[in-house]
UniProtKB/TrEMBL annotation:
Belongs to the OBAP family. This is DUF1264-domain-containing protein. Residues 1-24 are annotated as: Disordered. Residues 1-20 have a biased composition (Polar residues). It comes from Zalerion maritima.
Amino acid sequence: MATAHCDNNASSIPETNNASGEPLSTKWKVLDTGAGMVQDFSPVKNICEGLNAFHSYASEPSRCVETNHYCAHLNEEMRQCILYDSPGPNARLIGVEYMISPRLYETLPSEERKLWHSHVFEVKSGMLIMPHPHGLVPPSAAWDAIETKAMEDVVHLYGKVYHLWQTDRGDKIPLGEPQLMTSFTAEGQFDFEKMVGERDERFGTDWRKKKELRKEIKEPEVHEDADQTWARKG
């Protein structure tokens, strides 16, 4: 099985948003500033967790994209995440992900369950991270403990992801239909050490350390309907 090639060059903070269109005019900068001082942005203010990981195209798993997630809890069993191509102020919104508990997952029809992926490998391998709030400042033991505790919950969740903007092929605007995405479930599905290592350099993190910190997290049994991209690949 050929390993996936991941696009993570766009995840460094770009000087521009790399999208087609004229630069924002002074008129709109002024109007946006004024509106921002008056309007209430409650839905986005509920975002409480930032994550970084890699998504693979379900229809073409040799393609994958590094993705920054900004998530809010709808309730104890469901989260919703806005996905961006970078953590910077010029980031492009490229998709959405929903995460649900195993209990909710099992209530879904079988065909629906096949659209969802597990997070076990993402967590246990050290691929999935909560970037430190101060960038390249080395995370403290307290931050490591917070992240590890959060991963104890995420490891059980199932995710459903659609990307709306195929930035990895150079699209300057969102083109085509939404693309169902999935995540990796085992070593050898993409060049893990290279891609995750390059990501770690930018975020000041270390997947090896995270893997060690998470070794005591118990791996849940993954439902047979999940992770269908890799199930089909054997």
